[in-house]
């Protein structure tokens, strides 16, 4: 006797082909699964990219023009590449990304024409900061700064213009005095307060350095929201001798969506040009 579904000859009928809409749906699902797997693989691979920037590379990339040899007014460090003993990391809450900073980082001071100077801080190829100031009179004016961060090979940058400008040293201020200043880029804003903590001597590998200890408090809104605290010990020229920073932000990224960014780091001057 034939079983259910058998033909008169005892064989099962041939399977019917899937309807075309269902075949297209299955192909689309398979393609999506492959795309997701490839994307996840790329993100897992790209998360660990952290390329140190050595002194030679920094000099070649950021010493834009030779500094003039004549007398210049205003406090500013001599142009060149400065080395720093470094500890710290930055972290985002996607794919377990944590980038440890190298044991040595650099800062490049370069002349930009007239009273304008730039301090470039390439913590990694994927994390570069710039601070623009005008050295004139008894103090230097911080009139712009920028941060360029790359995650998963996708760069994101913000550059803020500051008006009124900040004062780099708060020259002439008493301990406990402060100055507030604001910087903007489009709809994003950076509200800053610089506090002069007091005069302190900082031990460095080359010996003790007299400094002015300033605390910079920053509140961000717009593309990034959150805040940062940077303790800066500056020599009489405005050079960073020591820095300790804590940053916590919520950042809107068109590539990976809303993410949390955390940074903890410290820097100590270890070598001059």
* Helix-and-strand structural type: mainly beta
| Backbone CA Rg | 27 Å
Roughly how much helix do the residues carry, as a percent range?
10-25%
Q: Say how many strands there are.
A: 13
Mean pLDDT: 85
Terminal Cα span: 98 Å
Low-confidence stretches: 1-9, 29-47
Largest sheet: 12 strands, antiparallel, barrel
Shape: globular
What is the CATH topology assignment? YmcC-like fold
What is the topology, as strand order, of the major beta sheet? 1-3-4-5-6-7-8-9-10-11-12-13
The CATH class is Mainly Beta
> What number of domains?
1
SSE topology string:
HHEEEEEEEEEEEEE
**Tally of helical segments:** 2
Give the DSSP E fraction (strand runs of 2 or more residues).
over 45%
Task: Just name the CATH architecture.
Answer: Beta Barrel
How would you sum up this structure in a few lines?
The protein is mainly beta. Helices cover 13% and strands 56% of the residues.
Characterization of this structure:
The longest helix is centred in the N-terminal third of the chain and has 27 residues, at about 20-45. Mean pLDDT is about 85; it is low at about 1-10 and about 30-45. The chain is globular. A 12-stranded antiparallel beta barrel has the order 1-3-4-5-6-7-8-9-10-11-12-13. It has one domain (about 50-270): YmcC-like fold (Beta Barrel), CATH 2.40.360. It has about 270 residues and is mostly beta strands. The protein has 2 helices and 13 strands; from the N terminus they run H-H-E-E-E-E-E-E-E-E-E-E-E-E-E. A hairpin with a 5-residue loop joins strand 11 (about 225-235) and strand 12 (about 240-255).
